[in-house]
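step 4 of 6: structure.
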Amino acid sequence: MSSDGRKPRIAVFKFASCDGCQLSLLDAEDELLAVAGAVDIAYFPEASRRMEKGPYDIVLVEGSITTHHDAEAIQRIRRQAKTLVTIGACATAGGIQALRNWHDTAEWVRLVYAKPDFISTLKTSTPVAEHVPVDFELRGCPINKHQLLELIAATLAGRKPNIPAYSLCIECKRRGNTCVMVAAGTPCLGPVTQAGCGAICPSMRRGCYGCFGPMESANAPSLASQFRVLGASREEVDRAFRSYNGWSWPFRRVFEEAPKP
Amino acid sequence: MTPADSAPALRPGVNKIEVPVLARVEGEGELHIKTKSGKILDLKLRIPEPPRLFEGFLRGRHFMEVPDITARICGICPIAYQMSSIHALERALGVQVHPSVRALRRLFYCGEWIESHVLHIFFLHLPDFLGCQDAFEVAAKNADAVRMALRLKKLGNEIVRVMGGREIHPVSACVGGFWRAPRREELEALVPELEWALDASLQAVSLTASLEFPDFEQDYEFVALSHPEEYALNEGRIVSSRGLDIDAAQFEEHSIEQHVKHSNALHSVMRERGSYMVGPLARFNLNFAQLTGKARQAAAQAGLVPPVRNPFRSIVVRAVETVFAVEEALRIIAAYEPPPAPRLEVRPAPGAGAAATEAPRGLLYHRYAVDENGLITEARIVPPTAQNLRRIEEDLWGYVPKLLSLDNDQIAWRAEMAVRNYDPCISCATHFLKLRREDV
């Protein structure tokens, strides 16, 4: 509760995304009613018709910025937000749709849509932090619902959220997995990816595909060279890093700094 | 308050009803209705959700990456996107999976159906019937019902988590099978909760059947996947209530996009016929005979006799399908033998293939072409909401005139409720839908 005795007001906004990260809040089945009791859910269109105007204490933003309209809207939303938190790979890194950033977007629009002139879209898909200051970025495609609850609780309590920025390898070792890269030679993004998913891919004997984005001080080009040693082609290495968090700078370094063949 | 029945006098002049943000749907939609002297002048369901261009960037990706990428089209029904893409690619590459893998795919889908249907019934649709803004208000009146819904939804998610590692964008399904097949004990651990869920989902049927439904029926063409031996999820022919009976490979010859006058959005229509409906009502009406026993009984007790033509009753049909998904999950788990290998190693080869599966919201069609290196050269995706969009607007053209004696807030609310009959997933639909241009 804030100093004037009212419940903190929470709002959820979305841009280009799949809705999965905001769904994580509704997927917190055991905690949902408690959360709804502790805060005032002032704006959350996916869940409620009640849509109240700002200002809000916490604003959760899902999705990347891909249109002029959205680039303006995020400015207005920032002004309404005491604390603005971006949730998920779209909002924190541009998402899978940021693959357009290396392509001729107009060509893809023509490919997907019969009447391309009806489509108003920017040439790029960019993270929210490229447009406005962001107070905290919650990683993942999708985010981990327990991390989301921790983040809301910490923000309400005025403390720093306890969300580790170390690599997936730590989670993987804790689960007792045999390393897929060392034992089976399977390319795995785990060494440069932030923990948070529970190392679910290596637990199924497949390589991590990096959906939580780069860990703190990731050295992706070094891991990329190791993939080449394991026999991956340059194109395969590129594709591995160019996915859900491909626009994040630590991953972009792999193909933007690599010497041309 | 509820969509109430107070009836102020008809207003003269042009009356505009605007719903700038459509609530309790997945994604962003807007509704604009313009009326004059008791007639609709214009009605548009507008889609401002930005396009994400999936069919564009899938080109050049390896086929093994596709199910993980297409999952990201929709956070509510990622398994549907994984299943349709996997089946289409397996047809392109000539892959036949083991019967145990086939059964696991059905179980995986049952988990998603339970989670998605319960979310829609209790959190997105029921509040309208009870005059509540959201499920939190419903919980204040009937906490037990919402707690039961949360527990049911959690079970659906738990099936997905056990098999796929996490609820949203699970990581186990792949072309050729699964990266990992669950052990018998892991699935058997779900049985006690599934047995509880059988009772709970039957309660959901009686609860939804006791609601009051607007008196509104339409003459729909229902379209769904159909299989002679089972309630179709992953496999079957695409059939309709007007005689369509085709393989998925022929889908694009029959379902075409049409540019209609009253809207700049392109809508799917059946060639030479018009709009059609996919989703729970279509499946129920076309595949009633294949429903499991308790689901059929529950439908009978709820007074549902196919063909059900009142779209508002889709909330009851979703509850009946939840009973089905629980029964089917129990049946699959009881018979489960892990496959000899969780997945087949699939070699790249040039080819093309199409497939459709039943997403919770209806038929989801995918088609791909692959080159000799296994890279995608062409991708086409037709989501259920894109197919229903024309039909949703036609429902509104039929339904809104019945509401014109109400005040604008009430008209807007009831029209929204009619849109929510379709559980529209606008995030899915927009990588395909045309954006409407504001022409004055």
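step 5 of 6: annotate
 - The first helix of chain A runs from residue 20 to 26.
 - Chain A touches chain B through 66 residues (CB under 8 Å).
step 6 of 6: archive
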